[in-house]
C-alpha cells in the first residue's frame, strides 16, 4: 500500500483532478481550521456539540467542508473552542 502523500501526488498529476482539488481548497482549508481549533481545545465532536447545544452529527457536517454554516454557528464554534471569530475580505492580488 502506498503512503497517503505519495498517492495524493500521483492522483494530482491528472489535470482534471488537480483543477477540482484547487477549486475546493478554500472549503477544505476552512474545514481543517475548524478541526484544528477543536482538537487544540481537546474536545471531541460530541463534547463540542454539547457545548454548542447541537448534535454530534451537526459538528461532523460543519467539519466536512460541505456545509455552509451561519455566522451565529461559527461564533458559537469559536467560543466553544476558546477562540474569537474574525472574518475578513481581502482584495484579490
From TrEMBL:
PROSITE patterns: HTH_CROC1
InterPro entries reported in the protein's UniProt record: Cro/C1-type_HTH, Lambda_DNA-bd_dom_sf
Originating organism: Desulfonatronospira thiodismutans ASO3-1
GO molecular function per UniProt: DNA binding
Domain HTH cro/C1-type residue range list: 34-88
Protein name per UniProt: Transcriptional regulator, XRE family
Pfam families: HTH_3
Amino acid at each position: 500500500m502506498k503512503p497517503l502523500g505519495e498517492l495524493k501526488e500521483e492522483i494530482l498529476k491528472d489535470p482534471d483532478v488537480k483543477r477540482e482539488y484547487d477549486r475546493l481548497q478554500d472549503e477544505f482549508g476552512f474545514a481543517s481550521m475548524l478541526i484544528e481549533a477543536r482538537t487544540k481545545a481537546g474536545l471531541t465532536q460530541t463534547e463540542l456539540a454539547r457545548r454548542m447545544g447541537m448534535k454530534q452529527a451537526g459538528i461532523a457536517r460543519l467539519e466536512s467542508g460541505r456545509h455552509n454554516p451561519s455566522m451565529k454557528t461559527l461564533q458559537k464554534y469559536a467560543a466553544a473552542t476558546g477562540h474569537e471569530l474574525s472574518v475578513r475580505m481581502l482584495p484579490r492580488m
